[in-house]
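Interim report, section 4.2 (structural modelling).
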Amino acid sequence: MLKLEPRREPSALMFYVTPFLAIALTLAAGLLLFRILGKPPVAAMQLIFIEPLRSLRGVSELLVKATPLILIACGLALGFRANVWNIGAEGQFAAGALSGGAVALAVYPATGWWLLPLMSLAGIAGGAAWAAIPALLRTRYNTSEILVSLMLAYVAVLLLGSLVHGALRDPDGMNFPESRLFQTALPVMIPGTRAHVGFLVALAVAGAAWLLLERHMAGFQIKVLGQAPRAARFGGFSEKRLIWACFLVSGGAAGLAGLFEAAGPVGQLVPALPAGYGFTAIIVAFLGRLHPAGIVLAGLLMALTYIGGETAQISMSLPSATTSVFQGMFLFFLLATDVLVAYRPRWIATRPARAGRPLQPPAKVEA
Amino acid sequence: MELLANILISAMIAATPLVLAATGELVAERSGVLNLGVEGMMIIGAIAGFAALLASGSVLVGLLAAMLGGALMAFLFGVLTLTFRANQVASGLALTMFGLGLSALWGQGYSGRSAPPFPRLSIPGLSDLPILGRLVFGQDGLVYLSLALVAAVAYVLARTRAGLVLRAVGENHHAAHAIGYSVVGVRYLAVMFGGAMAGLGGAYLSLVQTPLWVERMTAGRGWIALALVVFAAWRPWRALLGAYLFGLITILQLHSQALGLEVDAQLLSMVPYLATIVVLVLISRDSARARLAAPACLGKSFHASS
Amino acid sequence: MSGPLLELSGITKRFPGVVANDGVTFSVGAREIHALLGENGAGKSTLVKMIYGVLRPDTGEMRLAGAGYAPHKPSDARDRGIGMVFQHFSLFEGLTVADNIALGLSPKLAKRGLKERIGEVSAAYGLRLDPDRYVGTLSVGERQRVEIVRCLLQGPKLLIMDEPTSVLTPQEIEVLFATLRRLVSEGCSILYISHKLEEIRSLCHKATILRGGKVVGSCDPARETARGLAEMMLGTALAPPVREAVAPGPVRLAIRGLSLASAEPFGVDLADVDLEVRGGEIVGIAGVAGNGQIELMEALIGERLAARADAVSIDGEAVGATGPVGRRALGMCFVPEERLGHAAVPEMALWENAVLTGEARLGLARRGLIDGARSRAFAERVVAEFGVRTAGVEHAARSLSGGNLQKFVVGREVLQGPAVLVASQPTWGVDAGAAAAIHKALLALARAGAAILVISQDLDELFAICGRIAVIADGQLSPARPVAELTVEAIGLGMGGAHQGSDGTGSAHA
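Predicted structure of the assembly:
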């Protein structure tokens, strides 16, 4: 039987190999899934994972979708490293879009070079403020930040819906639940596409996150808190301050992502703006090993499943949920293969060679 | 009076999926496992039950399929966290996302179809009594089952050896292992029981409450069930109380619209989520007491040391 | 019965990278108190876990009362009449005494009337217990009684006791020994695991000595000297540390009226603790585990702040309201009891663990950016000067053996040149070589003028290195007195002091 033996040290090799192993297993499971669904497996997989990369439009859309994922996941990774579980980035995304968008609508039709920076700041502030609620409740009352941040995600999405139905509705919009088009938009990177400069900002944020996590004392404190909270107290690192920092940074990043989405590809506030980026970013963070460089790659991969899913939806009438099944499987297989980092699997004969000898212990789990 | 009876009955119906899911999760958490995938297990239960009911025409088959679906999801979670010792928080999130996606994929062909009405208890004479009749004697079988479940779980946890072992495993897994209990085995059972109950709760939504299949129809109820376990301080009867309070809040919110209160529907829909937050804050404010009530090993992976 | 009760032959057990037991062969006779003697890491615990069915041997055979014996789980062992009192990890703080006992019995024995039978057995052996109390509220000695009563209820033929006295006062130890002798007179055998030589000499009929997982000898301990036993156990003769009298300098660490409520559900509150430690002296704090040592350590490190700033001061500077970083900057360094997870982050590299406490004093980061080169250089100095056996400072703290990691932790603090060093259980679970090295380092640091406070449950350790010793009991600290005026018995009375009030049985022990 298979026995898991703890390694004396985590395996560096496995740390980098397992994400690829998880991808391979997901692809294999995907083939199986399509077979069960009665769709041609290879063609469907090709449609999802290869087809989008063959056109400029596909690649530019990849950057559009990857931007919010990378931005949010970098912020979340800081928290996850510290064992601070902000899983309500979806709500901070909506709050950021709402507050940043509200700034543009408030000054309408005035515009100028100052408007986009102002909207971005308002977006960051909105996301951070929304994230401050779970931070406050966790540090003041010891309330589970997991549940609070998640509940607030539902609230923020409803709030966005309510406001574009009401106060922020386009007065000339024939009662459609959407705001007016913003008077300004994020500059486009590649002419003729929707790929905007937000992607460059996301790369810059990933760079800053790398510096913070790998070189800075603040990142060191975050890692110590996550791995050994008592050692963090021993080091004199304030848990409350770190929780606050993680929430404000991840909320701000999610807020900025929301504003970019609103002021970029969408151009206005609509109820469906938060399309699950906040939740998918959680997978991106893990698949990227909570490491900014990994997050950039994982963000691109997850963006690919979005676009591929859409392509498959159109040309093969696969349901849109295919995307989230793939995303869930990625995370599943990554978590499962992660065991190889800390443990060495060994195959051991169940039956002893010679009768009368005591039996081998079963897997260490029970031994 | 009629309105009051209606409100109470609807509140019980709204609360029953929460009762089922929260009681199941409570058992899992008492064994020391924090499964954040309740939402995913519920939604799989909802679609599995719905599909099985339409295929077989039997309510019982539908409910069994829902429990099986939830338990299988929980088994997946067990493989990740108990056998592979993955992080419980991350694994729970993965389970929820996977469940939401898979159920949508599976339920594609079922959108818009409705299930036959769910049978209700009807005792001639008693069920026709004003107010009390329908409240006490006129509910569907799952409402009574959920009450029986709470009573059974409360009894098993407090009074039986199986319950004692379960609590012991959640309290100190090293000690439980040292005196010879299979920590992982007990936890697998507890987690799968939690999954089965979450699945049943999901089926209640798709077979009784609506009765329809709608994508993402659980709408955060799995998360509310998780909050209820904290609210209940890991005690079954308090979980029941919490769920009923919740059902009442949900229904009052719906009825306020019917009563003509001029409030935006979307703002009103926030009420259950905001109420959850308020309750969580109230309950966790006294941190020392909250820590005493929580199983000491909650959320910790177990690996037997030499 | 004439033959031996338990026979082991050729028992071998391997773990990744280490052979815990290598062909162990010995036997325990009927009505015998048999000592299993060995250093930390000699393989004693692994061996008894195999006898009790928690672990299974890779090879080898066991026989019990002449018949084959291969327990697959502890209940097999219990069914065959073997009971075990664990050193750690076998009670549930959140459950009652009765529930704890029921969990360790077969379902048949745990049926109704258990509380009455607990009452009978505990009365018969003078082990008073209230079956309805939560174990978390019991003292360590009372907890051990729970374990013993749990075993006695099964009417055992063999009782295994794993380091039973490490948590008891000298007076409680006498009571325990009386119980054990009485059990033997009633026909029970006892396998007694310890590394304390004097106890084994006074209690045991026979001793088997383990070293590095192998049996290296057996003897009648009453006929050996403690020194002879120690040499068999260690394989070498060991020179005790030399403590020179140093003229004490000025007061460097002052604790005045320190009171602090515990943050833990079953913790102990500190009440009005007073103590002064002068430069050049080592002061010890003796006490049974769970009497406020953890809380005192937290208050001294600054993990929890005192109500008044002058409750703790370093060189006259009040730091009671200052956190750990500020205290370190003023020259206070700490060695907490738990190596992994408190003093060091298990998964982090040694050099990163050097940053954990070294940053505040040595400035290992500039403008927030960690100076990797200087941090590694400091960690390498610790490794070199304290003889830490490791393949390099890039390796995780977890990969080190207990003794080597402890040397690293002590070295990390000592090499920061502290004015005051507070160490809790500095040699707990550490092999004799490492313990001697740590003691030497502490004595050298004191000679250099630092004030050192050592909190320990090991009286031998305190007598070996301290100039004065105070006793902590139930959160209260006795005045520190010079070792020359103290005896083990006197300290023992102080250690038990608090419990006499709490359960009313203390006076019966004395």
